[in-house]
Design goal:
alpha/beta; about 15% strand; binds flavin mononucleotide; 8-stranded parallel beta barrel
Amino acid sequence: MFRIGSVQLKTQLLLAPMAGYCDLPFRLLCRELGGVGLASTDLLNCHSILRGRPTALKLAATNREDQPLCMQLYGNSSDPLPEAAKWAVDHGAAVIDINMGCPVDKVAKKNGGSLLLCDVDSTVRLAERIVQAIHRTGVPVTAKVRLGWDRTRIVAPQLAVKLENVGIAAITVHGRTTDQFFKGNVDYLGISEVVSAVRKIPVIGNGDITEPEDVTNMMDLTGCRAVMIARGAIRAPWIFRQAQALLQLGEPGPEPDHDEKIRIISRHFELLMEHLTEREAVLSMNRRVSWYGKTMGHIKPLKESIRLAQSAREVRQALDQWQNRSNDRNNAAVRQECCLSPVQKNEKTYRFLSCVDCDPVVI
Ligand SMILES: Cc1cc2nc3c(=O)[nH]c(=O)nc-3n(C[C@H](O)[C@H](O)[C@H](O)COP(=O)(O)O)c2cc1C
């Protein structure tokens, strides 16, 4: 069983904080699909939530089905992070995470996010103040770090040790440096050095998990006790249930077929409509459909219809039409008609697909 402080999680799989993506509807979708042990909000600006700014409150919105929830806060030593942590506990957070890895200017130029990696001692004092501010509530505080600012300034192992000493309950390590942004491969050795450095607290490995097998790979290579998934979840929110099956049964659960994926997208849209305004829901689906498309073959026409949709009715219509088309695809006559011309590639013969719906068929 995996715990963060006093919080018992059902699985060792965590949905990462992702600005612009991890709103309540998306967290609920991932939870409904199964396998999520803990889900996080987008990063929250401590000033904005304390001032009650509507956008920040919306990002922090939660409900009974959205548990256990991690609220991620960002700021620097002179910001009211301890007060924001108290606010988050009062508003439904089961875990508070401090962002120590965000590389974007908007955050790092205000001395928050990854910039906290550049002054370890002051960051540790800040973490201690946050831990103390909510100590009585029993809500654990965690930190999400990168390996360091750049290769010449790797600080994650020493920072993790000091954070553990002041009461941080778990550390998530994104196995890249700040100056890498998202480039290059995740450094498993770098994550394993943090695992070796800490005494008791769990380390959560993060980076480049796109298949269920990447989860076990991350655990085997680094010794981390849990895994956090970010972009892999936007493209395939069912990855948690597949990975959980792999961890429990030794086999990943099946990937949803095309029709089920369309039903999942439709369900996602319904959740967006329940919790956001119609305009926000339509725009959100517009941004997300390309991510879904990464696992769905050729869906350009669907993406295009959703991109052009101005209302919820048009989004639903696009999804329904695509579903109907996909049902037709299963009709043998249609398949025969669209797979007429064989193509030679890599010493194999493929049917040429004049119908955009079909998957390649090896003959
Ligand atoms: C669109 C986007 C937004 C992100 N926002 C946050 C954030 O708010 N807080 C944070 O700690 N990390 C954020 N990240 C980083 C991810 O949580 C994660 O560490 C990184 O993407 C590596 O994991 P992955 O390879 O599974 O995507 C973001 C990443 C992406 C792609």
